[in-house]
Amino acid sequence: MTHRADASNTLDNRGYNGPLIRGQNPALLLETAMRDRITDSLYWKEQCFGLNAATLCDRAVELTYIGGTYGVAMKPSPFICLAFKLLTLVPDREIILEYLRMGGEEWKYLRALAAFYVRLTFDAAEVYKTLEPFLEDSRKLRQRRKEVYVLVHVDEFVDSLLTKDRVCGTSLWKLPARQVLEDLEQLEERVSPLQGELDEMEDEDGSAGDVMEVDRNGRSVGSERSSRSRSASRSESHSRSRSRSRSRSRRRSSPYSD
After folding, report:
1. The total number of structural domains that make up the chain
2. Same domain for 81 and 207?
3. In this structure, are 215 and 126 located in the same domain?
4. End-of-domain residue from the set 190, 213, 228
5. Which of 102-106, 158-162, 169-173 has the lowest mean pLDDT?
């Protein structure tokens, strides 16, 4: 594909013979208003011109935040510009998966960019299979909104891609619910990584209930304390009765008694 700064050739469907995604030009997956802002931006014309799948990776590792548009003028962020560039390049699937792996230790914004592209372009079942493992990534991301920056986490961003219809100022295609794909046998039932901890908590709650049940049967702390108090009161009353009997016997045996 010939590179042009205005990218008008990628947005013109006349004579387009490149790869299609869900039957349409991939560059048209973003809304018209967003595309216009991107192609008119200075970042697109200066930093995205002539990029390929390899050099785009160099730009992605320089990202410092995610987002769609910002400011009063609704300027497009570098993140959304690079996402649009990926849509015009349509790299091989293996390249996107490598982006996701490369973002594992160091380049978290590269992983976020690849996850966003996966949500836009992959089939429904593949979206779940590819993105769900990253629900365990708890690293922090900066997200730029209209006027402020906010902190999110990678797993939070991925969850938004899986559950919401609009992310980073971009409308996403309707993703079927996971249960629907499970019923169609396109996905297996997902086991949460926290399932083991949840099972342990349930076991602890169950064992605590058993202890309370045993306590009610006669070995509770309250009954033990009450039994101790009853035995103490019995011994005290017994000692008092013995002292009284002794005093009476002394009075009777005394030679000065009447």
Report:
1. 2
2. no
3. no
4. 190
5. 102-106
**Spatial separation of the C-alpha atoms in residues 198 and 178, rounded to whole Å:** 21
CA distance 196 to 184: 27
H helix intervals, the chain: 8-11, 32-40, 42-47, 53-60, 78-89, 93-102, 108-121, 124-131, 154-163, 178-183, 195-214, 221-253
Same domain for 240 and 161? no
Degrees, nearest 5: CA angle 51-34-70: 95
pLDDT, tens digit (0-9, with 9 covering 90-100), for 88-132: 999 999 999 999 998 777 899 999 999 999 999 999 999 999 999
* Residues 178 and 205 both lie in one domain: no
What pLDDT is attached to residue 201? 80
Q: How far apart are CA 202 and CA 34, in angstroms?
A: 48
Identify the band that residue 163 occupies on the pLDDT scale cut at 50, 70 and 90. Answer: very high
Give residue 212's domain range.
196-253
Q: Tell me whether residue 176 is in a domain.
A: yes
In this structure, the number of other CB atoms found within 10 A of the CB of residue 6 comes to 12
Same domain, 17 and 144: yes
pTM of structure: 0.73
Alpha-helix residue ranges (DSSP H) falling in 71-194:
78-89, 93-102, 108-121, 124-131, 154-163, 178-183
**In-domain check, residue 1:** no
Q: Are residues 52 and 163 in the same domain?
A: yes
176 and 86 co-located in one domain: yes
Give the three-class secondary structure for 248: helix
d(CA 245, CA 237): 12
Q: Which residue in the block uniquely carries the two structure tokens 């103490």?
A: 232
Distance CA 41, CA 27 (A): 16
